[in-house]
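Here is a typical sample entry:
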Amino acid sequence: MNIALDIDGVIIDFVRSFNTVVKKRLDYDLKYEDLYCHDIGQVLGIPKADVNQLLHETLENNHFELIDQAKESIDYLKDHHYVFLITGRDESYRERTIDLLKEHEIHYEELYFSRYLEKHHVDVHFDVFVEDSVEEAIGLSREGSTVLLMSHPWNVRTLNLKSLFKRVDHWKDIVKEIDRLSLK
């Protein structure tokens, strides 16, 4: 099976590094639970230009930790499936992103960069897509992929009435669901 993984919020704990920048620049200790939606400008009540600057500083620092069990789970998946990475990071961060993935020994077939809400335009069919953005998950579900939405405070307020995606809480849930789907 072709498995697609988002990077930030699925593999990389972006929030921890982002909080360091927010604390330094805005003198605010951003809590994980404060992120009630994916729109950081709305959460912090700051203009988009300021959000972009904070994101830029975070990505330039390139000091990120992995989400618990991400590496071990990806290693397992890579032994059984084709693993692709798709990120909403700007293409200008390609080298930094590749270096980060090498540093953490994250193995993958290919890495794609896509604009926000355009991941479904990548010209590869994915059987399963793991994402943390509800908006991306909805778009991806229309393309025929099974979408697993990794639970975070910024995506728990959706009712998912049409069951467009399946919610997963941890990497063990992701692996279990992919194993289940591969037996079909």
Notes: The chain has two domains: 2-13+65-182, 14-61. Residues 2-13+65-182 form a domain with the Rossmann fold fold (CATH 3.40.50.1000). Residues 128 and 178 are 7 Å apart (CA to CA).
